[in-house]
């Protein structure tokens, strides 16, 4: 039964990934350009906000599928050996493993996408390490919160949440995680857009954060927070709602 429940995770995750990336790609481009050291206008402004969408679409299906297959497998494995009160830790661990596997697929398309959006230069290794640095903390917040909100809502109404309710929980979890991890997103973007030889080109996240803090203060660390929260809240609704609905249809 458990094996049967994990099988739909691959197509459901892939479909959810493609849907959310194609629908919300313009907001991601705007956010990236807001965080660019060149400034929004010089980085392209509103021109060509769908630049890089082919590479994003190509990477979305296998990336999201890999994440959810790993997430569901690790979650199922850990649930069998850990007590119920350890569920948040189980979800954190499952999400972390999922991100590591997904990043191996995501990074090449992420490099192409970022370069198309603002024409930077950066090595694939730097992108991998810094994407993990950003994505794992994000998932550590988003997925335990999503699962906890679903459990709470299910308990309140006396039955398992519907897909639209799961999507709503995903929107809240995604928006909150987006807000608290914005500084890491700013640092990752600065590193990816850094010119060779500059201080940020070293790939050190803490150094990039310190550089932004010194030059722009708190507003700089939270540059693009509104479009990021908007995009990821909508993304959480679409991504997790689509995943939940598709998975139920395939079970």
TrEMBL record:
Keyword Transmembrane helix assigned: yes
Localization of this protein: Membrane
InterPro entries, sorted: MCP_dom_sf, MCP_transmembrane
TM region positions: none
Residue ranges of coiled coil: none
Pfam name, any one: Mito_carr
Protein name: Mitochondrial S-adenosylmethionine carrier protein
Species of origin: Chelonoidis abingdonii (Abingdon island giant tortoise)
Gene that this polypeptide is encoded by: SLC25A26
